[in-house]
Amino acid sequence: SFAGEPRMTDDLKLPPTRQEFLPAVRRAPFGELTLYEITESELELLERGPPDSLFLNFAISLLSVAISLSVTFATSTIPSDRAFMVLVLLTIVGYVAGLLLLILWWRTHRSKLAVAAAIRLRLPPKSIEEARSSGA
Question: Shortest CA distance to 99 belongs to which of 42, 61, 129?
Fold first, then answer.
């Protein structure tokens, strides 16, 4: 049947008006399909998405600014005390915030990889799966 053609099904208990609008379903099976079961906390971690790239981008930016300001201190003299204090403060904030964001990136990056590895490890090796299916 074609996709727009009404289709009657006996196995579904739908009202007659809904049965007319069911689409025709064509299925092309996979050679092998692997399903992984995950916990609610793992799903939530995966749903949150990767904030790690944002952490890394800001860390690189802040550390670049801090290094640039450090080079400025080493290569020039700043006559104004106020300007000197502002630049020192920006340098310290740049290093501290950049390092904190770098640590956050490393932790979230590693935790996402650890969750994916833990999920993959639940799948038994192929030889064990074949032994189970042939013995059952």
Answer: 61
